[in-house]
Amino acid sequence: MSDRDTTTITITVLIDGTQYIHQVEGTHWRRDDERTVYVYNGDTTVLEVDAEYFVDAMREDSVETTVTTTQ
User: Fold this and answer.
1) Distance CA 41, CA 18 (A)
2) Measured between alpha carbons, how far is 59 from 26 in angstroms, rounded to an integer?
3) Burial class of residue 32 (count of CB atoms within 10 Å of its CB; 0-12, 13-18, 19+)
4) 44 vs 25, 28, 40, 48, CA distance in Å?
5) How confident is the prediction along the chain (71 residues), in pLDDT tens digits per residue?
6) Which residues, other chains included, contact 45 with Cβ-Cβ below 8 Å and sequence gap of 6+?
7) Whole-structure pTM over 0.90, yes or no?
8) Strand arrangement, sheet containing 54-59
9) Which long-range contacts (CB under 8 A, 24 or more apart) does 3-8 make?
């Protein structure tokens, strides 16, 4: 997948002790010098998160989850 292909990007934020998960379609995400997180779809900013609230970001096409179940 190239950097310009759109995929689901999941952003987790923490506000007043509660975690919120927000999913947007985008191509990539970045931080600026103040640590603010931006999600882009090409050259367009689709989401902006202040550093104080940011917890995690991930592109869904690059996430692998291993699950183990026991009985």
Assistant:
1) 27
2) 9
3) exposed
4) 11, 10, 5, 11
5) 445 789 999 999 999 999 999 999 999 999 999 999 999 999 999 999 999 999 999 988 765 666 666 76
6) 38, 39
7) no
8) 18-26, 7-15, 54-59
9) 3/27, 3/28, 4/42, 5/61, 6/41, 7/59, 7/60, 7/61, 8/59, 8/60, 8/61
